[in-house]
Specification:
441 residues, alpha+beta, two-stranded antiparallel ribbon, 11 helices, 31% helix, 17% strand
Length: 441
């Protein structure tokens, strides 16, 4: 310790997604670090530092930094000023007429009420009138998806340790997952199909549907099952300081059966788990993992570019001739129908849904094309040795016929008990015969 000079502040950034999260973790901590480093120990005083730090909030705001504001005192406001600020907040965040948001009519009504409040003298009546208008806006019916249109389902979670905001939901291997960053893969496009009082969520590319089969278990995406869902906003407020009771456009996606708006009970809702999977879980708290935005795709340019990039990587990295790799014909088809055609469409400007659908269909056709299998390469007129790669057996690694059994043994050149031939069967199966005994394994 005698050889150490100065101070050091480490920030482990492996869980941070962008510069905004980095700034939030650094500020105002850097001010405190400077205070420790430069101020003599005899003059250090927490309350004195806290008060001197307050004017720096305005400086950070002017520089557009994202910082932890809970160490800065809020400006005292009258009840009417508070109501005006809340109305301005929800209007600024709103996209009237879009899915998950209030209608244009509701938006216009609150806008008019805000203008009236701004022009009115301070009074309990003016404050109450505006608060009523805000509550009416927050409880107004939200716009629902339109069947046949394409959407992305995007996390609205901004909670401290689950900052998944902007992460997109996608299908993979029969499950619903989410990326930690925005993506434009074809597996991340969804449609909503009317089903009774709700919707069934269908993947745009595969046609598979989302199901919430078991509470607190991973959500599935298959062709065999679906769960009708409903879309609602939420007013369940976090207990964290500064938390809000409403974020425009942030919705819950819940199963129709057993639905309540409460945070109690086993209400099945889409919920982003930290392992990257979507679970069926009940947490309707505003800005937590159970909140989502449903964003309509109107220009498919970004989605087509994502598909072109994906296909181009496959073409560049494809190893034709190897087992389970695409054929040369398949890669040529993918390059022509997706990469080249997609690039031309993107260069032309606005990309329509029809153009994107055509590219997705071509990509799906490529995925369904046959790949080279081991079966295809086997020759009924050849003989083979069978080498076990289990390293602990060292040299005893070749399959050897031994008194009616097959055992590992060191390779002996020309030993017929270690030579095998095959007979092909239907369905990609073979029978394996030993050359010495002519008996099938």
């Amino acid at each position: 310790q005698d050889l150490c000079l100065g101070v050091q502040g480490n920030l482990w950034a492996e869980t941070l997604n962008d510069s905004e999260e980095l700034e939030y973790q650094l500020l105002p901590r850097l001010m405190a670090l400077a205070e420790i480093g430069w101020r003599p120990a005899s003059q250090k005083n927490w309350m004195d530092f806290l008060m001197r730090m307050q004017p720096h909030g305005a400086i950070l705001d002017s520089l557009n930094y994202t910082y932890a504001k809970h160490f800065f005192f809020e400006e005292e406001k009258t009840a009417q000023q508070t109501a005006i600020a809340e109305a301005e907040r929800v209007l600024k965040l709103s996209k009237p007429g879009k899915v998950g948001y209030a209608s244009q009519e509701a938006y216009d009504a609150l806008t008019a009420a805000l203008a009236t409040a701004k022009g009115a003298a301070e009074s309990d009546e003016a404050t109450q009138t505006l608060n009523t208008a805000i509550e009416t806006f927050k409880t107004a019916p939200i716009v629902q998806p339109v069947e046949g249109k394409a959407y992305q389902i995007v996390s609205a979670s901004t909670y401290y340790s689950q900052q998944y905001n902007g992460s997109t939901l996608y299908e993979k291997d029969g499950s619903a997952r989410f990326h930690y960053t925005p993506q434009v893969e074809p597996e991340e496009v969804w449609t909503f199909v009317k089903s009774g009082d709700g919707f069934v969520i269908k993947n745009y590319m595969t046609g598979n549907t989302i199901a919430l089969p078991t509470y607190n278990q991973n959500v599935t995406v298959t062709a065999d099952a679906s769960t009708p869902i409903r879309i609602d906003n939420t007013r369940v407020k976090s207990t964290l300081r500064g938390a809000t009771d409403f974020i425009p456009g942030a919705v819950l996606i819940s199963a129709v059966d057993g639905y309540t708006a409460e945070a109690t009970g086993n209400v099945a809702r889409l919920w982003a788990n930290k392992d990257g999977y979507i679970k069926s879980f009940n947490d309707p708290t505003v800005a937590y993992q159970g909140t989502w935005r449903i964003e309509e795709i109107e220009d498919f340019k970004a989605q087509l570019q994502g598909l072109v990039n994906k296909a181009e990587r496959i073409v560049e990295n494809g190893t034709t001739g190897d087992y389970n790799e695409p054929t040369e014909e398949a890669l040529a088809y993918l390059n022509t129908e997706v990469v080249e055609a997609g690039k031309k469409a993107i260069e032309a400007g606005l990309v329509s849904e029809e153009t994107y659908k055509k590219a997705v269909a071509a990509y799906e056709e490529y995925l369904g094309m046959p790949r080279k299998q081991i079966y295809d390469a086997l020759d009924e007129n050849a003989v083979y040795t069978i080498n076990c790669t289990y390293s602990s057996w060292s040299a005893r690694t070749y399959a050897t016929a031994n008194n009616g059994e097959v055992k590992p043994a060191a390779l002996t050149s020309g030993e017929p008990k270690q030579l095998w031939y095959i007979k092909k069967m239907d369905g990609g199966k073979i029978k394996l015969y030993n050359k010495a005994t002519n008996q099938a394994a």
